[in-house]
Amino acid sequence: MWPACILVIAIGIAGVAAHLIESRRIPKKRERFQQRDPLSLEQLYTTYFGAGVVSRERFEFLWNAVAATLKLDPNRLRPSDRFDTELSPVEGHLVEDELIDLTEFYVNECNRMGIAADSKPQTLDEFIRLLGNPTL
Questions:
Q1: Distance between CA 61 and CA 21 in Å, rounded?
Q2: Which helix (H) or strand (E) is 44 found in, with range?
Q3: H/E element, 16
Q4: CA-based angle 59:43:88, to the nearest 5?
Q5: Domain coordinates of the chain in residue numbers?
Q6: What is the C-alpha to C-alpha distance for residues 6 and 35, in angstroms, rounded to an integer?
Q7: What is the pLDDT of residue 85?
Q8: In DSSP terms, which residues pair with 82 in a beta bridge?
Q9: Rg of the chain's alpha carbons, rounded to an integer?
Q10: What stretches in the chain show pLDDT beneath 70?
Q11: How many CB atoms lie under 10 A from the CB of residue 51?
Q12: What are the pLDDT digits (tens) for 21-46?
């Protein structure tokens, strides 16, 4: 009986610790973008992708998918954001980062579109341009 109680308490403590670590990691990640002026999706689209690069609907779908997956404000992201810098995991945290989920999304979209997932985008701009044409 006692070993079971001790195990339950240990699992509960581990869960609370994991929650505390997670609750500190995401705000640290978001701090990287707080100095930026927010841009609407319309501003982002017309400034960076409006010249026939990708449809507005596809742009908004991909941009919002990236922001939601990475748990970031879509209005503070920029096409030049690099996955190994601005969008990289927060150092000092042992929790897996959302980039793993975004990689799965990227591979699934490539498979759905019938394109090879060999090319690994380095920036958000490359990500949008590579996945921007859903009819490939």
A1: 30
A2: helix 41-44
A3: helix 2-31
A4: 60
A5: 2-131
A6: 46
A7: 87
A8: 123
A9: 19
A10: 1-10, 12-27, 30, 92-96, 134-136
A11: 7
A12: 555 666 677 677 789 899 999 999 99
Place of tokens 């596809």: 58
Tokens of 135: 């009819």
CA–CA distance, 15 with 21 (Å, rounded to integer): 10
**Spatial distance between the Cα atoms of 103 and 119, rounded to a whole number of angstroms:** 12
How far is residue 18's CA from residue 22's CA, in Å, rounded to a whole number? 6
Distance CA 136, CA 131 (A): 9
Residues in the chain: 136
Alpha-carbon torsion angle 105, 110, 111, 115, nearest 10: -170
**Contact partners, residue 130, CB within 8 Å, separation at least 6:** 110, 115, 119, 121
Among the listed residues 43, 118, 125, the one whose alpha carbon sits nearest the alpha carbon of residue 78: 125
pTM above the 0.70 mark? yes
